[in-house]
Amino acid sequence: MSSKDWIEKDYYAALGVPKTAGADDIKKAYRKLARESHPDHNPGDPKAEERFKTVSEAYAVLGDEAKRREYDEMRSLFGSGAFRRNARAGGQPGGVPFDVSDLFGGAPGGGDRRFGGAGFQDLFSSIFSGGGGGGGAPRGPARGRDVETEVSLDFDDAVRGVTLPLTLRAPGVCDTCHGNGAKPGTQPRTCPVCHGAGVNTRNQGSFSFSEPCRNCQGVGTVVEEKCPECQGTGGVTKTRTMNVRFPAGVADGQRIRLAGRGEPGERGGPAGDLFVQVKVRPDELFGRSGDDLTLTVPITFAEAVLGIDLRVPTLDGAVTLRVPPGTPSGRILRARGKGVVRRDGQAGDLLVTLDVVVPATVSEQARAALETFAGQTPPAAREHLDARVRRVG
């Protein structure tokens, strides 16, 4: 995306969120729209593919805190008319005419590129160079955009760690030209207009500023004979499979970053990153609290009163825990080192919550035994409750 896109395109509207939306709301809106318009779910639908590109482009900016801040600053600056001056600016002769179309070259196709982009700071670092100023530093091939996907893991795999094949349908490096955009047997050549700088300097009144070279679109090189496969972009949409290692202890909602596995850069530029959002399926027995595993175990009234050696499962076997006599319902027993293994090699604990089960029905013999037990057991201390009942009754 180009700097001009940042001014002309409303990325908030593309995602259907207000400008005050938080990071979580932006991410949620992007995931919903990306799932609905993904090419895999809409084969042969060019409109869906275009929507997918639009929401992906919007999230690439709004999902990055630094880019979003620059985007908001740029739109606020141009929206306020800060750079719209007429010939008599400020009521004094000699004002400097300035139009945003001059900044971007104004020609159709003069700055829109599929890969990479320019930020607010890059755009304005060379606008006011004062006097005759020379050309800016070479920009070169632009970095590819980041890509985000989602993977569901079983609870056990998330705790232990696992390597899984991940299949993506996304832009990748063209195998025909290996990313440089040129027809096999040819090479891109240095742009004759900007001499590889990617920018040209223009003078206007007392100011000089640089703009992306229209001839090479700011890349610094031109492709005379385009690759027949990618049409000169250096990237194509294709299905690729890679093995991804999920470390032990990965948590639900965690993002795994794979450097250089995102979209390729234009004409050999560095690739973006791939971010894998992890969703962990719940386990039928175990829960998780940080690095600790949780487990609820039912016990009978008699076991709670008399005590018992309780055998409970772990992820890699079983342990025996001592339930002391007189244990109340809800008490938590701890099996140390039987939880999630941390990165430093240490492990969390297994926390076992005891749930005293009260039977709905009992036999006559059991009822008689309980009545005998109740007759020989002092009642629970409820004097403070009885006193309040008498006062309000």
UniProtKB/TrEMBL annotation:
The cross-references to InterPro entries, in alphabetical order and at most eight, read: DnaJ, DnaJ_C, DnaJ_domain, DnaJ_domain_CS, HSP40/DnaJ_pept-bd, HSP_DnaJ_Cys-rich_dom, HSP_DnaJ_Cys-rich_dom_sf, J_dom_sf
Native organism is Micromonospora endolithica
Name all J domain ranges. 10-75
Note what the entry says on domains. The J domain is necessary and sufficient to stimulate DnaK ATPase activity. Zinc center 1 plays an important role in the autonomous, DnaK-independent chaperone activity of DnaJ. Zinc center 2 is essential for interaction with DnaK and for DnaJ activity.
Query: Which residues belong to any copy of the CR-type domain?
Result: 161-239
**SUPFAM superfamilies annotated for this entry?**
Chaperone J-domain, DnaJ/Hsp40 cysteine-rich domain, HSP40/DnaJ peptide-binding domain
Q: Which residues bind Zn(2+) 2?
A: 191, 194, 213, 216
User: Its principal location?
Assistant: cytoplasm
What protein name is recorded for this chain? Answer: Chaperone protein DnaJ
CXXCXGXG motif repeat spans: 174-181, 191-198, 213-220, 227-234
- The encoding gene: dnaJ
Quote the Gene3D superfamilies the UniProt record gives. DnaJ domain, Heat shock protein DnaJ, cysteine-rich domain, Urease metallochaperone UreE, N-terminal domain
Cofactor note (record): Binds 2 Zn(2+) ions per monomer.
Q: Which GO terms describe its molecular function?
A: ATP binding; heat shock protein binding; unfolded protein binding; zinc ion binding
Zinc finger motifs (CR-type), residue ranges: 161-239
Which family does the record assign?
Answer: Belongs to the DnaJ family.
Q: Identify the keywords attached in UniProt to this record, alphabetized.
A: Chaperone, Cytoplasm, DNA replication, Metal-binding, Repeat, Stress response, Zinc, Zinc-finger
Q: Which PANTHER family match?
A: CHAPERONE PROTEIN DNAJ 1, DNAJ HOMOLOG 1, MITOCHONDRIAL-RELATED
Q: What does this protein do?
A: Participates actively in the response to hyperosmotic and heat shock by preventing the aggregation of stress-denatured proteins and by disaggregating proteins, also in an autonomous, DnaK-independent fashion. Unfolded proteins bind initially to DnaJ; upon interaction with the DnaJ-bound protein, DnaK hydrolyzes its bound ATP, resulting in the formation of a stable complex. GrpE releases ADP from DnaK; ATP binding to DnaK triggers the release of the substrate protein, thus completing the reaction cycle.
